[in-house]
Amino acid sequence: MAETKRYTGGCHCGRFEFEVDTDLSTAIACNCSICTKHGLVLTFVAPEQFTLKKGTQGELTKYQFNKKVIDHLFCPHCGVESFGTGKMPDGKTMFAINVRCLEGVDMTTLRPTPVDGRKF
Fold it and tell me: Which family is annotated (predicted)?
């Protein structure tokens, strides 16, 4: 059963903080090169489910690779990618949230769905 909750999150140094409403049962573990190297576990939300509370998106460092459809956003101070932005297959804007950057989440209780991002 889906359960959307509000979480707070941010980067390591605290320059960027956000709130997000998401259902962590939808989390994925992608095996693409960047997700593998960063150990990302992601959940995706619509813009209305995400609020940047501290810092601005323009202050983050952007990195794109492969098809350049996702903006991987990093804190320029501590280097943590707490979220990114991009387009869903239907063209709608989305936020990709790094679940490991959410406060109070016990990662051992999650069962992220494996995604074969290497084939894209």
Answer: Belongs to the Gfa family.
From the centroid of its chain, how far is CA 6?
14
CA dist 95 to 1, 56, 108, 109, Å? 22, 14, 23, 23
pLDDT 10s digits, 97-114: 999 999 999 999 999 999
The strand pair at 17-22 and 28-30 is best described as unpaired
> How far is Cα 93 from Cα 83, in angstroms, rounded to an integer?
13
- pTM, two decimals, is 0.92
Return the amino acid letter for 26.
Answer: T
Ordered structural domains, the chain, with CATH: 5-105 (2.170.150.70)
